[in-house]
Amino acid sequence: MNTSLNKTDESCPGKYGITAGRKRADHMQEFQLEEYLSRGVQKIVRGMILAAAGNSEERSFLMRYTADEYKARKLRAAAEQRGEHIPPFLIASITRRCNLSCKGCYARANEACADRTDAAGFADELTQNQWGDIFTQAEELGVSFVLLAGGEPMARRDVLEEAGRHKKILFPVFTNGTMLDSGKAEIFLHNRNLIPIFSIEGGRDETDRRRGEGVYDRLLKGMELLKGERRLFGASVTVTSENLREAVSGKFVRDLKNSGCRGIVFVEYVPADKKSRKERDTLARTLEQLRRADSQMLFLSFPGDEKESGGCLAAGRGFFHINASGQAEPCPFSPYSDTSLLHTGLREALRSPLFLKLKEEGILKEAHTGGCVLFEQEQSVKKCLEESGNDNERTDCGRSTDFIFHTGIPGHQCEKYSG
Predict the structure, then answer these.
(1) From residue 408, how far is each of 6, 146, 335, 381 by CA, in Å?
(2) Half-sphere CA count of 136, side-chain side, radius 13 A
(3) pTM score, two decimals?
(4) pLDDT tens, position by position, 313-339
């Protein structure tokens, strides 16, 4: 650890004057965070087992995975005792390739997303072997879940096949679903640690308005295909003020369940302002009602479920993001990096100067109005990146030389800051 971070440092905005007593308190809080995260992982796995009721193959796999997750939990606990915090989750954007052009896509706007035929657009993506090495390191550290995103992850079948070999990790695959046919479905049928998560905006009108005409029907065909094969899968819904009512309605949830879906991840639109507090509260209340009403469906929300974790879970507290080129970033919503997995290991990436700055300066635990603390503290994040001291590795989320800061989840616009 960089010893300079142990001193009072007013060069980076945040909370200053960290005393020895405060450090001991922070260490205890981090230990409690590990317990909180491990309980969360256990709850998710139990929810998946309940969701697989009546499907003996899925339940059998998940029961075996439970044993592996227990071993991973022990690895993380042992690391915590050594003063090293290992998050149970990673997010890996394995490609910039995508076959859709969704409205407001930040990746398209920033030229960080390319058509599948545009080889120059993804020439610097990590190879199958490089991702395989990262997955191996994740196993050895005790990571339990690696969320695969993009671009469209189905465009990198080679990486999905590599992920399938790492049975001790569950890989939720966040896909637009339009590339799933009987041939590509085989990878999910032969690798039950790959869990398809279909991105959907609501019903046909809302989904097609955002993603393109006919996408909703193609999504349903993909779900029907997996349902016919008795394969566990879920859905991901970006919740905005425009689709909130439909997204949490009983009809929408029933329709998804009837299509074979057994879990829904509700992703709150980022940023969120004070005017959206009512909508966020409505989402939280409705999710609790849904959970009580149907124990065979798994309902998760992000970042709403972070409220009890004492702050943002990014930058290695609960997860961090690896982009398609191997850069370690705090979060997909905060695409800043000073560390590349091409030149360092996963354990070392967790100690990147930027991650340490964000945690030591208290930015991840700053009070905020909801949604995304990194968005509200964008100037502090930018300042910490500038002063992370790792000039050779510093990048943003795209090929632009400007600083980039997401103002939304994948699929929404970004803002550029010069110099």
Answers:
(1) 33, 21, 12, 16
(2) 8
(3) 0.83
(4) 888 888 999 999 999 999 887 888 899
